[in-house]
Records
---
Amino acid sequence: MSTVSLIQLNKNFKEISAVSDFDMFIEDKEFVVLVGPSGCGKSTTLRMIAGLEDITSGTVKIDDRIINNVHPKDRDIAMVFQNYALYPHMNVFKNISFGLRARKYPKNEIELKTRKAAEILDLTELLERLPGELSGGQKQRVAMGRAIVREPKLFLFDEPLSNLDAKLRHKMRAEMKKLHQKVQTTTIYVTHDQIEAMTLADRIVIMRSGVIEQIGTPYEVYHEPANHFVAGFIGTPTMNFIDCELEKTQPGLHCQLSGGSSFQLDHFQLNEEIGPSREMYIGIRPEDLIHVTSKRENLISIDAQLEVVEPLGAETLLICKGDFGEITGKSNQARGLQWGESIEFEINPDRIHFFDKKTRKRLRRII
Amino acid sequence: MITPILFMLSTSFKEGAEVYSLTIFPEKPTLVNYLFILGESKFIIWTVNSLIIAVLSTFSVLFFDGLVGYTLAKFSFRGREIVFIAILSTLMIPTEMLIIPWYMMSRTFGWLDTYWGIAFPGLMTGFGTFLMRQFFMNLPDELIDAARMDGWSEFAIWLRIAMPLVIPALSALAIFHFLGNWTAFIWPLIVTNDPDLYTIPVGIASFNGEFQSDWEIVMTASCLATIPTLFVFIFLQKFIIKGIMLAGLKG
Ligand SMILES: Nc1ncnc2c1ncn2[C@@H]1O[C@H](COP(=O)(O)OP(=O)(O)OP(=O)(O)O)[C@@H](O)[C@H]1O
Ligand SMILES: [Mg+2]
């Protein structure tokens, strides 16, 4: 039960900067997820908080205590590693209780706490086994048990589910969420799986090359991405991006797509002055590109030729090629679509994201 | 390969006159040699000396080589490479070259004719340090990190996590070192004058008089001297096999 302050955290390996100016305040009981592409500094950030990696500059505080120079053993933080890092020569019981023994708990209390943790994680039958005799999912649960048994101030998870197969990962994700609701310990969780991030997080931190791109709730990072990178990183299938030139008209904006198509947005104004015209990317999520079968008046739409149909069951993805490039849209109708057919997609103007081509920042609609 | 050992065994049951006949089976097997060795010579004392020195120095080697090997493998600090190379380079110096400096050291510090004097050159070895470093390099860092998060000190992690996971290497090192120490001859010979401090090899050599050698006695003593090494080998071999099984479970 603790808050965490990360203030201007920096980490350099020799000349390479792995994390720069990481700034964040984490509330008590919060579940924060760090996501980003491989090598963006997620693990390094986590390891700095854990004390496993020296901090080049900056401050880490738990509650109001600065812990920059505190040995990991004295930080009262539990960590789950990607490869579980179970001690191969100890059975499950000893693995789970190893941290309690370090803290010199009385014997009967160790027994009690360990059995309780094992029960929560459904490990009671496996207590005598060695890690080598466990399946991946069971190992993962032992690693979790080792973390929860100590009731630490803070949990750190470094891609704990990445070694599991898809089905098990899904199940453990739900378990993870239940567990957090039960124990309510402040948690920082690293993953490169954005679905994991979206489903687990109270707040998501999106990183790239050591820099925070955005901090926000799953809703915010999805619907109000700070920039082009975040918009492309969050969401599957990824957002469609189209080069365009915005021109100011009365009373609104004219959107000239590369390749020739264009549409008009009336009564539309962005939070930045765009001058007479400005180079932009527009971004539209596949679920906001709806295949329309019957023409209606005043519809904002774009046309493209159908290339691939991907039926997913509940809905169907249409991958199409227009004169502006490739886009992915959705259809409720899976049958009867022909390769090369011309498809019209409807666009809800409120669901269009505008990104400045130079700064790559998102502009917001204000009118 | 086995012939010399057979002769050693058979000679130990022969009487003095028969020693030079090359028969495997003694004509009149006898136990007088054994009675002499165990009853009238200082063989028991030498055995105790040898055991004390070999056991202590083996434990010392496991401890210090393990500790230094681990440090070299798992901590980065300035000068690590230099320390490692310095330790490696000691492997290139033959023991014979070190004996004179050791002797002068021992004389200066008054270590002649002491257990410490016999044992000190073998309390830590470059080879063992190198061997342990190589094994510890394969130990996953995550295990060490996990133990840190679990609240253990660096020394405790070494003792409780790192060392148990390299038991096969430790057992092999223990066998090598114990045997090497058990059969060490030149240095114990030089550093001891008092027959009460002889180790077995030095003691056995002392049966070889200047003018006459009692081979049957020498052989009997040698037979007895191999017994502890057999036990050590059998005992430690179990750990090597067990350790290999454990290594298979890792990951
Ligand atoms: N010990 C190290 N020495 C030098 N560079 C390192 C070290 N550890 C990490 N780096 C570098 O720091 C950067 C961030 O690494 P980090 O492990 O934090 O990435 P990550 O976001 O966890 O990636 P992944 O998703 O692949 O685990 C990378 O460019 C990496 O090469
Ligand atoms: Mg990582």
---
Amino acid sequence: MKIKVNKKILERNEDFAESNRKFFKKKNIFCINMISSPGSGKTTILEKTAKALKNKINIAVIEGDLYTEFDADRIRKTGLPAVQIETKGACHLSAQQITKALHQLDTDKLDIVVIENVGNLVCPSDFDLGETARAVVLSTAEGDDKCAKYPKAFAQADVLLINKIDLVKHLDFNISRVKRDAKKLNKDLKIFEISAKTAKGMQGWFNWLINAKR
Amino acid sequence: MHEAIVAQNIVDTAVAQAPKKGGKVTRVVISCGQINALNDEAIKFGFEMASAGTICQGAKLKIKHIPLKAVCKNCHKKFDFDLYNPKCSKCGKSDFSLGDDAPLLLEEIEFEEQQ
Ligand SMILES: Nc1nc2c(ncn2[C@@H]2O[C@H](COP(=O)(O)OP(=O)(O)O)[C@@H](O)[C@H]2O)c(=O)[nH]1
Ligand SMILES: [Mg+2]
Ligand SMILES: [Zn+2]
């Protein structure tokens, strides 16, 4: 006996993603899902973004890590509200976890919600969280061949932050190669070269974020 | 794609769709896109793990890869997008527009004929 199913696999995640998307729309919140390998500088970028923008717009952060509350604590020190999700071993955030985290935030006055996904350049790409935009962070120390090796993360992003450009002088990292490879996959990708440490290039990212919200 | 979770999802759906009288699953057909792509080897392995001890144990898994159509902006050639070699098949340029990628779909489940 043959049964035609024609059902989306991962439908459960998509249902939650869709309801998050509706929620953001209704509340007029811009939500950005940040994806990268561990240690590329996501939390540092967010700390600096918080300091620069907290008096201009209302931002909240949802932090995803396998264990610990470290990153949410780092964000709270900047004065922003933050919710930590501990995935207890899972390699990505799911839309349902975001739905839950949103309940722990006062979302009435929020302009932007940033989700720092679990450090992993592979799995988080497969899980729609209902975000408005997706950012991928690649740090120079990871090497300039990563767009070609992990195409999906770059193909699905709206913005690419090439971080730690202060280190380029110590590395064989070809920024034009990264940009060329990324644009091949995704010609509309917006690319910023930044250093969260020295603040170089960060203004462009801040402006993008503020404009995206509008 | 995240093959382990996808495999678990397939088994869960098949179990939920099983006819009341029971019966084993003999074949499952799924399809995926090019960005929403599955690795055949990984999904088959994941399915084997997830189906152990369920009505899906031993079932055949067929995976269809649906092409993603792209149109070159330079020479207007229509071609199948390849994530690992993203360029026009005719002129080699990387400026093209993409259609919609196929979603991950559980298409059909075949159950053993009941006497
Ligand atoms: N040199 C340099 N180090 C950075 C930069 N951004 C972050 N780091 C360092 O990289 C390490 C990992 O940063 P973190 O923000 O925790 O990365 P995450 O795992 O992506 O959240 C920390 O030691 C940061 O101080 C940068 O632009 N330049
Ligand atoms: Mg972090
Ligand atoms: Zn062409």
